[in-house]
Amino acid sequence: MPRLAYLGPEGTFTEEALRLLEPEAERLPCANVGAALAAARDGEADGAVVPLENSIEGAITTTLDEFAWGEPLLITAELLLPVRFSLLARPDTEIVHIKRVYTHPAAITQCRAFCARELPDAVVVAAPSTAAAAQEVSLPGSPYDAAIAARIAGEHYGLVELADDIGDRNDTVTRFVRVSRAGTLPEPTGSDRTSLVVFLADDHPGALLEMLTEFSVRGVNLTRIESRPTGNGIGRYFFHFDFEGHVADARVGEAISGLHRICDEVRFLGSYPRADGVAPQIKKGTADPEFAEAGDWLARIRAGRV
Amino acid sequence: MPRLAYLGPEGTFTEEALRLLEPEAERLPCANVGAALAAARDGEADGAVVPLENSIEGAITTTLDEFAWGEPLLITAELLLPVRFSLLARPDTEIVHIKRVYTHPAAITQCRAFCARELPDAVVVAAPSTAAAAQEVSLPGSPYDAAIAARIAGEHYGLVELADDIGDRNDTVTRFVRVSRAGTLPEPTGSDRTSLVVFLADDHPGALLEMLTEFSVRGVNLTRIESRPTGNGIGRYFFHFDFEGHVADARVGEAISGLHRICDEVRFLGSYPRADGVAPQIKKGTADPEFAEAGDWLARIRAGRV
Amino acid sequence: MPRLAYLGPEGTFTEEALRLLEPEAERLPCANVGAALAAARDGEADGAVVPLENSIEGAITTTLDEFAWGEPLLITAELLLPVRFSLLARPDTEIVHIKRVYTHPAAITQCRAFCARELPDAVVVAAPSTAAAAQEVSLPGSPYDAAIAARIAGEHYGLVELADDIGDRNDTVTRFVRVSRAGTLPEPTGSDRTSLVVFLADDHPGALLEMLTEFSVRGVNLTRIESRPTGNGIGRYFFHFDFEGHVADARVGEAISGLHRICDEVRFLGSYPRADGVAPQIKKGTADPEFAEAGDWLARIRAGRV
Amino acid sequence: MPRLAYLGPEGTFTEEALRLLEPEAERLPCANVGAALAAARDGEADGAVVPLENSIEGAITTTLDEFAWGEPLLITAELLLPVRFSLLARPDTEIVHIKRVYTHPAAITQCRAFCARELPDAVVVAAPSTAAAAQEVSLPGSPYDAAIAARIAGEHYGLVELADDIGDRNDTVTRFVRVSRAGTLPEPTGSDRTSLVVFLADDHPGALLEMLTEFSVRGVNLTRIESRPTGNGIGRYFFHFDFEGHVADARVGEAISGLHRICDEVRFLGSYPRADGVAPQIKKGTADPEFAEAGDWLARIRAGRV
């Protein structure tokens, strides 16, 4: 039974994701993304589950930066989890008496309409995580009257659900990934995604276009690009790429070898089954048998047989 | 004397930026980026100053999303402000007694080494802004013993500076912009930057490459690209672009008209002098006189004069 | 009634093309392509008809080079003429007695199978044109027994057609163009072609890719590219381009202005109706109304109205 | 001692090229390019020397088409030969009595100024080759008074040189190649050229741009591109490419494998030392050791070692 670290405390959406990804796993809640990944790195856990991006908030930059700068880990699975916020309070709290609400800034943004309509006089205060907000609210003497968090957090901390699904949109999704230490990669499934971090060799005009051309010329479709600051002043960035296919695919291998040749550093973050099961459209000339046949042809002509 | 809204409360780095950009302006502190921009939009203020990105933390996504989705505003100036964090406390507080530190998550990240070394037993709690942290600490009965914030915040709220320049790096920079309602653009200076938001017409493979080609073919160099989720599920993004040049430049005009034609929506965010004063390298054939000459030539051949 | 020079003598395929393009025109046969174009240039004729390319032989390089280096002329029409070769001889000649055949090298190539089969012992000698071959054969005392030429040439010179349609392929086509001195261009018809000559500014690696990108980024499809030596040593070329659309089209105008800006010289050869009547596929964002709308948008944002 | 076929008769510039390329070889003159190549193919000769392009006239299309459609041969060497034309006549001929000049059309073009100035009343007639012209003039009873050809042709056929170096330009160069049947390729020298013929899979807009991108993305610089008709009507072309590097180079191998995957047919014509000895500029990331290192890296990450 694997032991998986995750962004805790108990009751986070990340815990929900972990339970769906690995129902049997032993769960190790950690204070933040960095701690969860550290547990995976140092062997305290067999891996970790962390959020990567949210369909409203965008990238979880802490996760991106940990993947880019920390000891390398491999993404081995992803999960898309619909996000449902609940208004949670201590038993006996009435909604009309709520004056101070505690939650993560992302939830503040996503529940703005509900708060304006149902809690017009309440102050909403930023918490480090939605589960931490629920935990705080559960403490006797907390200055906060309610938390906005996952229902699961209410269950953990003995809170009552005063309102369910209070987000402005009901199609918000968070993407989580499971990571583990380097080792065997997941087998290709025909519907895979690969993630990379790329540091430019030198930040000349057109460098990004060159990188994208390495993908497009081999028919590899990007699904996500994120720029992140290198830390060396404004105007210096590195890139996270997600794209279709598995590193075992010939077209993917050639594309990322091309990046590796022209860039300062390419860090491979993993190839893993896509959560949405979408199969890539393979451009004519870029399937594995076509690469193999071209390799045979090249060997023949190099031997002078034409 | 213009009246400018800014990300308050008094004492934020944003206030510092505003004072540098517009020393004479009347200052209107606002609770958050959205409120500052709203004040600029509805006429309560003549404009606003807000942070856009940080060399460590990356984009200020609230600002990006406000620019993309809110009522249009124009960026008219930018400023690069070195970030110096101070440890601030109520008078008579000794550093050894600090158990709870309050500050913005970005400051938590950036002062990690100092906290680990000097405040190993203290809990560091996330605040909505560094100035809000200072304000909270200044209140009698605050549960927090110290704030990490700009020195200016300590002066505002009567706090004492226990330590100066406590960031892990001393070259951290935040980029601020001044915005105003639509109207006259700043004149081209020869060292300008232009900012856009672009929504794809349809998210086909190669769409990003096509957008970058619209820039490169006219010799327009990107200085920043940020992807942001459209909100419609994982895998749907729009883009922020910063690039060299002024919309009055022929090459910039043609490039962004090209984007406008092939994309669903292009929102112009402004052309304004670069804070770093760097002049663009103008590729052969893309200077204004060359565009003008080509236009004359085209008119001649369209008239049958060859 | 216009007077048109053409590649003579009477009886050439070019005469056939001229009769189809301008049945009413007065015809002025010339000794070669250069002479026909000179007649058009100096006013002796109102224009000229010359061959441009053949589906077997490829470009008529004399025509290409005249268009590139001579006094500028405008192509105003094109025609695709199926090429049918006949074996022509003086009356009373029997096929078994033919020992020497005279014709243009292109016809030698294209009638190879017929000659090998039907005239195995005959020598085939290169003539300056098929009609000149017929003319020579018609002379008393000619060393040649037969010519391979157009049937029309036989009629002109009093020869008998011994065999018809003797080409190896029966789908060979020659493309002819009518040119005139600079003046009014043909109106756009919705199915037009434009021809250019482009001299590179400097022959750096990637120069051709850059030129093609100027077309592709505006959705302008090439239909033909020919490289020709500049005369300054091996390895220095200039280019002929044919592409879809009319110079009056916004996308064409912008594309060729782009070429004009980055190249040493762009010579406009004309916009004229396509002989095959094929309408271009217009890529999203590149139709005239889309250019016009983008121009309006650009004017608005340049005026600060967003 | 190898036996090499060449474009005869004796006295052609091709013979001159052959003597320079292979001074010791036995020489087999052939009536035309096709016959010379046939001799190389069927074993009558060990190889052949034929002209490929001329700095004034451009491609020798017969050679290009033979290479594209005939039984495959390998180019194993190239030579750049300055072209010097002489006016040759039978002994006792005076220049003022010359009424009919016989020569190849290319020489007609290249000696136009001399003929206009020195032979204003002479008719210049097209011959199949300059050497054939010399041979014809040497025959008693020839209708021609003089030939324009290489001095070597005059020596062969007993003609007198009436004028030397009569071309309009004195820097005209012809490029010749030596070919042989498939077998061992020449070793890479560090200054090599590779030649290919490429047939498109389908002639969609942008197909040429895609082909060029296969080269550019691997840093392979084109030195020549020629389009030739496929024979299937106007508007259908295939391409000849010459480019820097040897097929043994990793970047060249990957580029042409890419072409092979996306095109209908790629025919390898050979890798051979450049006559001009120019070494290629190798773009960062495209040298052989960089390809090897990227291959090792890819193998490591595919094995899960990151």
From TrEMBL, chains A, B, C, D:
Keyword Amino-acid biosynthesis: yes
Keyword terms, alphabetized: Amino-acid biosynthesis, Aromatic amino acid biosynthesis, Lyase, Phenylalanine biosynthesis
Catalytic activity, as annotated: prephenate + H(+) = 3-phenylpyruvate + CO2 + H2O
Gene Ontology terms for molecular function: prephenate dehydratase activity
InterPro entries: ACT_dom, Chor_mutase/pphenate_deHydtase, Preph_deHydtase, Preph_deHydtase_CS
Residue stretches making up the Prephenate dehydratase domain: 3-181
Keyword Lyase: yes
Residue stretches making up the ACT domain: 196-273
EC number per UniProt: 4.2.1.51
Source taxon at top rank: Bacteria
NCBIfam families: PRK11898.1 (NF008865)
Protein name as catalogued: Prephenate dehydratase
Source organism of this protein record: Nonomuraea guangzhouensis
Lineage of the species this protein comes from: Bacteria, Bacillati, Actinomycetota, Actinomycetes, Streptosporangiales
